[in-house]
Amino acid sequence: MRSIPEIIGLDEKGVVVNAGRNRTISGRVWFGTLIFLGVLSLALIITVIVQARNRAKYDNTNKNKNENDVCLTQGCISAATHQLRSIDSAVSSNLCKDFYTYACGGWQKTHPIQSFDVERTILGDIINRRDTEIERLLDSPIIRSDQRSWEYKVKTYYTECRDDYIRVNTSATYLIAIIQDPSTINGWFMFDNSAENVSQEALLKNQTLYQQMSHIHGDFGALAVFGIRTRFDEDDPTIKRLELYPAGLSMEVSDYEEDDPISTSRRAAFQIYIIEIMKLLAKDAGITDINVEDRAFTVANDVFTIEKFLADSLRRNPTSSVPRTTNLQEISTQFSFEFDQIMRHELDDPDAISILTPIYLTNNMYFTDAFELVTDLENPLFARMVHNYLRWRLVATYINDLPYNYVHKHREYLSAYYGYTLHSTNEDYCTREVIRRFPFAIQRLYTMNSAIYSNATTTVETVSNELIKSFKTYLDKNAKWMVDEQTKNMAKEKLNALTTAIGYASIASDDASLDDYYDKFFVANDAHLQNSYSYHLFHRSVLSNALKNPNLLDHWDFFETRPSRLFEYIAIFNRLFVVASGMHEPLVNAEWPWAMNFGSLGVLLAQKLFASIDGPDGRTHLPNGTRNDWWQPPTKIGYNNSRNCITDYYVNELKTLTYEVNGVVVQVQLAGEPFSPTTLRHIGALRIAHGALMRNNDMKSLKMPGTNLTSEQTFFLAYAQTQCYQRQPLLQLLRTQLGSYDEGTALNAALIHMPEFAKAFECEARKNQCFD
């Protein structure tokens, strides 16, 4: 599946991570923009109040209505102002068929895609605002200046990451010294074979695979061939296991094999990139022989050949979510590699695991293929290929921490790879790295400086509790697709056992605890590349501590590895997480009426709750987190009937979606799959949140000012406006072809199948609702 990145590419799982802001805009433009937005907001508020009073006084449909029929609290005025900014009232006559355009038409006109992005979404804007705020906080003076304090370490790391002068002055000499150190990596073909009359084919110096992997993979943290992380035990969520998983590719799997124009151009861009970086390294290492470019080509070809082999194995052996249980002694024998010894380099405390401790191996066939290749070092050609591949992976790991001529080449490669120019500032990169690497320090920094945090937390707790109550009612009175009582009882048992974690990990509320947590992270105030390496050494201690004390971080470590997500349900813990930085407008406001809060954040959380019973993980994990497929055959049949009904709607009623790409109109025939389960989850979530609103309708018969909408209508509009988006047509075209439909299509499909929506807006209800 092709993904389009946001600025910096892919994380270790191949998940696109969000980027997003260009801070080169001048201060004058920002100042002018702020004045304009302030005037616009004031005008909207005045408009809301005037319209509200006029409508209440002069409503022609009922002369007896007065001001009391309109909610004029501060919260209602604020909520209505927010909704008016986004709606397009010009299309209100067609809202029964296309509610999305009515809800988001105004937003789309005023929220263009930035030149450095390919899409814009409501949640993306929230994350961007969060990152901007975090950047401001990281730039603020250090209050706890003790060099052991978490604040000193994180802010110093950020400051040195941004230090242009130090990066230029140190060049790449530190990394080159690491590569040439005879006690560790002991050279590189690129450097070693520069003497006159020396072979340009064979290695002059080589090491065993263990020697290379122990330093490059273990000591310096490069993802090569495989990665190491911790994972909760499949049967006991109080235990963490070490997990080995496939890693070490620079492109998507399909790009190594397919002959389409996009994959072909990506392969070319990748090899050119390697060659350019090799030439820069050679120059900084003082290598100037006449064969230097030939060796750069050789390195590029070797790296691509090894990665193509690994990618081909993954293509033939797709990774399953269910790992194999084994131990270090067993896989050391199976793969002829010293996994039992390499833990001394991978973990800060090798005693955290023994050679017989159960571990998880993800994709056994991949490991079989990979180690058959990389252990064949008796063959001089393979020995050189592995040698060059491993050293390249080391350089790739630290590429963004090198001087700017390296970073520039990296950005040129990304632009060529993705087919559009990327603009990412150093501030963007450094902010994202700090958020990714120090999530608990960032939680502390963010929440201790957030004035509205406590009120929002109480509101979110109320919303989540009411959603769970409504979910149980839904299972009892609706959910006709869940046919048998055994499945229904297990679903209710899961909801009874479900817990919520709202805000942040408890460790992030105490400075002393955070100081202890980051105790083994050492930072220098004049050397960013060394600080990046120091982070890896600290990460080894994190892995060791996770194995020895799996509950230290309240499981937030599992959720916080997903920095672009604001909330998530984790089946193995049967827990709903809501991160503090997501508890802001437009998702939640403690002053807003419940119709807004249940319609915005409420429906989004309800989708995660619904996944606890119908998601791939939810339906295969019991309340205690152990893996077991608890759906009984009658429920599977009932669910599939609903799924087929939604698929039929996409295939036979909606039929096609049309896009204009570079002036060419392209129609995509819809298949309905694999998207139909997403639509079912949206319908279920809307029904749960709507039920919660009906139990907590503080507006009663009052209407919203300005919009004159009832609480139920406001509820549906609130959810719709969390789905507003802008996306490059080519990107959405590709997503649609792969079965992921746009937010507008998904929203309209869900609402069309909801009698609650039809009743609220007096639309004609469908006879076949598909999902009761």
List keywords for this structure.
3-stranded mixed β-sheet, 30 helices, Collagenase (Catalytic Domain), 4-stranded mixed β-sheet, 772 residues, 2 domains, disordered N terminus, alpha+beta, 54% helix
Structure description:
Helix 11 crosses helix 15. Residues 1-37 and 47-67 have low confidence and may be disordered. By secondary structure, this protein is an alpha+beta fold. Helix content is 54%, strand content 7%. The longest helix is centred in the first third of the chain and has 32 residues, at 27-58. It has a 4-stranded mixed sheet with strand order 2-3-5-4. It has a 3-stranded mixed sheet with strand order 6-8-7. The protein has 30 helices and 11 strands. The protein has 2 domains: 84-132 and 436-761, Collagenase (Catalytic Domain); 173-402, Neutral endopeptidase, domain 2 (Orthogonal Bundle), CATH 1.10.1380. This is Endothelin-converting enzyme 1. The chain crosses the membrane at residues 29-50. It holds the Pfam family Peptidase_M13_N. GO terms for molecular function: metal ion binding; metalloendopeptidase activity.
Summarize the structure.
The protein contains 30 helices and eleven strands. The protein has 772 residues and is α+β, with helices and mostly antiparallel strands. The strands form four sheets. It has a four-stranded mixed β-sheet. The chain has a three-stranded mixed β-sheet with strand order 6-8-7.
